[in-house]
C-alpha cells in the first residue's frame, strides 16, 4: 500500500506571523449604466444580502472566469443585454471590509461604451424593479457602498476603501 508523505501539507507548516496569511478575496462586479445623468438601479428582492435596497446590477466572479467576462455574464443574466468585453471600462475599484462578516471584498465598477439589446428585468425573482435615478438624487434606501462608489465615480476618483479601521 502506498503511503502519502504529508510533511509539506499546510497543516504541518510553521505558523505564519500575523498579517502574512494569503488573502482569499471575494470579487464583485457592478455595471454602471448612465443615461442623461441617471444611473440604472435595481431594488433587490428575495436575496440574502440587502433585500429591499437599491443596488447596481452586480454579481460575483466565478472560478476560472476573467473579470470582464464576469461583468458581461451578469449584464446578460440580470438585464438581458449583451456587452462586448472590450467595450467595458473600469471606472472604480472599491476595497470593502464587510462589517457583517469581516470579509474583504474587492468591488469593481464597469461602464460600457455600448451594449446590444433593450434593458429589462431578466431576474424578477431577485429584482423587484429597475429604475433610472438621477446621480445627484439617489434613493435613501440604497446599498451604502453603492452610493459611496457612485459618488467617487462622479468625482473621478478611481480607487477607494470602505469599512477599514483608521
From TrEMBL:
Keywords: Hydrolase. SUPFAM superfamilies: Nudix. This is Nudix hydrolase domain-containing protein. GO terms for molecular function: hydrolase activity. Signal peptide: none annotated. The keyword Hydrolase applies. Its cofactor is Mg(2+). Gene3D superfamilies: Nucleoside Triphosphate Pyrophosphohydrolase. It comes from the Bacteria. Residues 22-156 form the Nudix hydrolase domain.
